[in-house]
Amino acid sequence: MSKIDEQKDEIAAAMEQLQDDETYADEGFAEIDVEDEEDSGKKMKKEKRKFRRGRRKKKRLSNKMAIALSLIVSVLAVGYVGIAVYYSGHFFANTKINGIDCSNKSVNEVESYLEKQVADYKLTLKESGDKSEEITGQSISLKYVPGDQIKNLLENQNQFLWPESFFKNQNVEAKIGVEYDESTLKTMVANLECMKEENQVAAVNAHPEYQNDKFVIIPETEGTQIDAEKFRNLVIESVNGLSDELNLSEAGCYQEPQYTSESDKVKEACDTMNKYLGVTVTYDFSTTTEVVNATQLSQWVKVDDDMNVVFDETAVKAYIQSLADKYDTKGKQRTFTSASGNTVTVSGGSYGWKIDQSAEYNALIANIQSGESVTREPNYSSRAASHEGNDVGNTYAEVNLSTQHMYFVKDGQIALETDVVTGNPNKGNSTPAGVYSLAYKAKDQVLRGTKKADGTYEYETPVSYWMPFNGGIGFHDASWQPTFGGSRYLTNGSHGCVNMPPAMAAQLFNLISAGTPVVVHN
After folding, report:
1. Which residue in 467, 361, 349, 459 sits closest to 406, CA to CA?
2. CA 52, CA 41: separation in Å to the nearest integer?
3. Is 0.70 surpassed by the pTM of this model?
């Protein structure tokens, strides 16, 4: 620094001091005499010396602090590096390998420890219900085989991150170098008590159950049925890692329920089943009714393994069968009061009520699933005139095979009667007894027998009025018959049809219609 600069600094320092001095007036500088000027110069030199001493003291203090901080940083750095060097050959604090505490241990220390562990090894299997079983190392000829696993784990450890280990647990899974009799281990696992079928109980899914007039959700039940493959693998993994305990529940060895009480599908199924309970299906049988309601529905609806609402098909079909047993009349034996006033028993034939059970099953399920109550007839494959009495009603045709006489009754009154000739029993052409219904009616038809090999028919008979009721058997005019009734049918009977005088056949044709019951009896 030049002398001019030093003088400038001295003057600046003196001016700062003079600003605080009482010799200065507020309004400006007063006139200074020679003696005052000399005093002022002395003071300036004194203040200059004082300022320099203070500055040197502060500089010495700053240097000491810097040296101290440098020493602290150096010590910390040396300590950090030193500990890092230590952890280059040791595992961090709070380190576990396969559940074994290896904190601050070297590879040799860990391997020595593991070797001792192998000698005394025992795997405890914690099972449901506070039960436990053991597999000892001795029983499977377990021995320790030093390898590179532990060394590799240490080498993968970043020693410079050692401070983190004091705040964070390290749980490492590794395959320890061991050898054992694998076949013996598998056999021991298979023969464990927990693996025996009689000791396993399957888990039960949460599911809807009918209680007190509604379906409620029954919670799931934990079971003891083991996932055998998963369990075997976990045992092998535990032995390979020298783990001392395997908790079957915590490890998920037991097969868990697929659905719990909180599963949406269970809740939805329960709601659907309760919706079905509100449905009633009323069957109208004219004179009586049958009702399907919650009593039956609570027994029919259930859930499958995927929690879909389904119906007990066997139970529903059994109910429909019971309706058929009670109300079907087709082919069943009937007690019939003939037009002549006699009571006769008639069985067989194609006429009568018959529920179409397959169609009715589908219709009933659809009614329930729709959630709407209905009143309707069952689905029928065959119908009759009435549900009352013998189901024939009060309009029908009647053929008495014994008397060779027929009647047509309309609205309970005989509208037509005549002698007839029926099938010839001596030639195997008897007219079958039973209750039938007229299939249709037609004029000017040709009735043909069985077609022969040469293309011709056994017979070809033209008729004016044709009214079939049992396949190829029916009423028709028979102009070739000179007489009717009596025993003529035994010698000159038909191939099974009911031969009628032409005029009577014409009248019947005008009276009868398709679907009219036809009662044929002896």
Report:
1. 467
2. 17
3. no
